[in-house]
Amino acid sequence: MLEKTFEPQAAEPRIYAQWEESGLFAPRTDGAAEAYSIVIPPPNVTGSLHIGHALNNTLQDILARYHRMKGKAVLWLPGTDHAGIATQMVVERQLAAAGNVGRRDMGRDAFIEKIWEWKAESGGTIVRQLRRLGASCDWSRERFTLDEGLNAAVRKVFVQLHKEGLIYRDKRLVNWDPHFQTAISDLEVEQREVDGAYWHFAYPLADGVTYQHPVAFDEDGKATEFETRDFIVVATTRPETMLGDTGVAVHPDDERYAGLVGKFVTLPITGRRIPIVADDYADPTKGSGAVKITPAHDFNDFGVGKRSGLPSLNILDAFGRITDVDTPDVPADYVGQDRFAARKAIVARAEEEGWLREIEKTKHVVPHGDRSGVVIEPWLTDQWYVDAKVLAQPALKAVEQGDTVFEPKSYEKIYFEWLRNIEPWCISRQLWWGHRIPAWYGPNGEIYVAETEEDAREQAMADYDSEVALTQDEDVLDTWFSSALWPFSTMGWPEKTEDLERFYPTSDLVTAADIIFFWVARMMMMGQHFMGEVPFKRVIINGLVRDEKGQKMSKSKGNVIDPLGIIDELGADPLRFTMAILSGTRDIKLSKQRIEGYRNFGTKLWNAARFSQMNEARRVAGFDPASVDQTINRWIRGELTKAERAVSEAIEGGRFDDAAGALYRFVWNVFCDWYLELAKPVFQGADEAAKIETRAMTAWTLDQTLKLLHPVMPFITEELWAELGKEGAPRDLARDGLLIGAEWPVLPDAFIDASAEAEIGWLVDLVGEIRGLRAEMNVPPSAKPPLAFVAPDDVTAERIARHRDLILTLGRVSKVGSADAAPTGAVTVVSGGSTIALSLAGIIDLTAERARLEKEIAAFDSDIGHVNKKLGNPNFVSRAAPEVVDEQRAKLAEAEAGKVKLQAALARLSEIG
Question: Which of 419, 453, 531, 649 is 20 to 30 A distant from 190 in Cα terms?
Fold first, then answer.
């Protein structure tokens, strides 16, 4: 007999160990089995399981378990990412905390050795945590983006792309982190709103030039007064960058400055002559309409500089300090100053010299490093780049013609938009931890790109008569570069392996929307370029998990839900089921209470299995569900078949919420609430044939239900499968008797019985209406009012006769009869085409009940009025957070629906008198 409750804390580690020991996580070796493959989005080796991981990996595991049970050779390939900047930061902090020397004092080789030591000790944390979630990855194939096999793949790709002219070295702007002294990707940049200012500077016009500037306008916006100016006003949030200004831009159609295009200004402090240029980037409606241009320190300005032929002058070093390497006209007082100290000094000088015209306080968004927390600088530096525009064309075409599809399809727009406007991809990082760039420099600056130093030396011999010293590039590759090769490098490429032959291209990729362009698009580019076909046939985009109010989770807000804490307390299954059933929206509103609710779902299933055991429902050898005779058994067989269809189609379509919803409805509403209730009288009755059939049907249905639920809630279903397997006829299983290896049920259409469905559907609807009336009219639970059918037809009369005992029990009524008209003192409702009358006279206090309903209606009226007042206030609707407005609208709809229901109950009271 089952224990009273399922104890996940004890059961889950034991069950997971059984799965691993069984070898079932590995693909079937049967060569005839259809292949299904999926590669895990590699989490950072430094990471711990967060709620986003829980969502993403639950969905992947559902797919892997489902297709495994469908008999396919399933490869879910796991691994971790070396996470260059994050890992380097972790180890540097550890060294500092232990009082050791810094990495620069330690030297590159010794520091990297320390990182490998850290990885050996602590790098497996997230992999162990994924096991706790139930992830059924093939751990024997686990990869790491810096392991030797992937290192070889990265070097080969770099060298080949360089030979093809698709990797090159260039001087361009990058996101520069002055704390780590490295370029970082856009994904590693966090936009933060801060208090700041626009400083308005008057740049004097050179060569004695003046112009008439409008200062007053009529109603039509036409200038009516002018003043003579010998300056032009620009505004900036970063005054220190003026030291690198090489131009001022105005819009070509801005009449105010038409005569100034081609003239010059004299840049304050430096005395540098810089031209006034015309460019569409300048917006005549913002500020003065004139914009200072610093091509070396602003991405937009860089574009203006390219179009207008303006030089790019770098005024910052790698640490964010003022330098005069490109700008000898910068006074020595500023050289070496921190950028923010220079800002204060420049503003003070502008005020002192009179060219500071205004300080406009503002809130604006400033980029910060997500790891360092410091302000990021657009910085002009030599880096390695990929010609992404060339590689993007096949990747675009593949999705356009349907070789790879997105689910939901709407995410294709993000993919297309990025690829059609793609910029060169900066792939070098000024770090030590990562794939070191396979490029060596000769004595005169020659670059030799090769897979090995030996190959580079052979190249150098062509330029020199004797062997010369070569120096390898100090930089490493962007983490996303190695991740872009993940679907094929993890399967052994560049070698021709059996895994590549069998499992590439992969079937599905499950990932988040925020890395469609950082990772998905780049895998598409690299997969097609090196493998000649797309890396995956379908991309399933999961949503973002937020708190119950729709706000982003953050430690500072204190609204983070820790999945490991949930697993410790409630088990993995409730968390997984919650992730699945909520996965159908872009923004998933999650609360602990919801997870607790789905723990109750597991408890419901467990209790149903105990009930079945107590009523001797066991598997019977040779039992054929096609041959059952009892109406309730033919009905549950059909309901199970429909549930199997719904779950299978939903998982195949990547609609995990629909699959979980179908499972919930079948298990809770159909099997537990109705079938077992309907089976009780049979179990307790004298009809032995009906009893034997119903016991066998219950056991068979429970087995099929466990199979259907297993991909979503694997632990509790595996435990029930094992415990129920100890009773009755042995199961006919192909692999080890574990549910994870069982065959997915595929039930025939003939199992759906229309007549049984109609009959039991009639009974279920009838009992539901009776229960609804009782609740609506506040009938005490102990009271059993009589029920009458008003002029029932012959079919209904026959159904009443067959199910009288069930109606009495489930409806909690004293008798079931028929009448030509509704009895006095009864309330009526239509169910299944018949009018039913529930006699309540003398059972409820009509006066008290009428007063209760009127009071509750008045309360709803008050709520409706209060919410309508809020929603009718334009200021509230426009200023309140969207989730707050949505909450109020939902509250209004709920109150209006509640009022309608109570009004209907009040109207029924009038039927009684």
Answer: 419
